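Researcher: Go.
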Amino acid sequence: MAGDDVAQTLAAMGPRLRAARDQRGATLTAVSCATGISPSTLSRIETGRRKPTLEVVLQLAKEYGVSLDELAGTAPAPAAGPRTSRPRSFGDDKAVLPLTRYVGGLHAHKHVLPAVEKPPARPRQVSHDGYEWLCVLYGRLWLALGDQDLVLTAGDVAEFDTRTPHGVANAGPGGPVEYLIMFGPQGERLRPRTPPTAGRGAHQPDRGRTGHQTHP
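Model: Structure:
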């Protein structure tokens, strides 16, 4: 493998490791306890500020239950034909359905929180490098973002820097909550684009607009 290819593979491995941890629903602290790798080291690897050693990659591949080919982006393409992805369940009964493969950069998941019978405690908050876009599809989602407490319903969107402490829970009581999450390394954000405004000449390019919000 040429030097440039090695550098590109290592650069893409951080986001793939972040995606693998996301699928397990594990925090940096939990992975650190399981592997002995410090949370700060894990964070720097996931955001590309530190290249992982082979020993670290082997440890994390075993912890996440993924192959080295998946982390390196060299896994064979899936066979043609219909294929279904099975949601993964975690200790809090949350189900996570990955919507993207380990390709680095932005990746997406669908999350489902089960119904609750009584109002929950304030969600436990975590923080890490990155940027997140969240959209509620069904139900009522409690988003604890820093010192803000927001209740989002179907169609509501939140976009925030994940270095801000954040956590979610079913705002219940009632039915389950379904929501989509798109996550990218620090500096990668969604870029909304709008069509040209009325009266703009066809020869003028539409440069689009960018922006973000911390609550709907």
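Model: DSSP finds five helices and nine strands in the chain.
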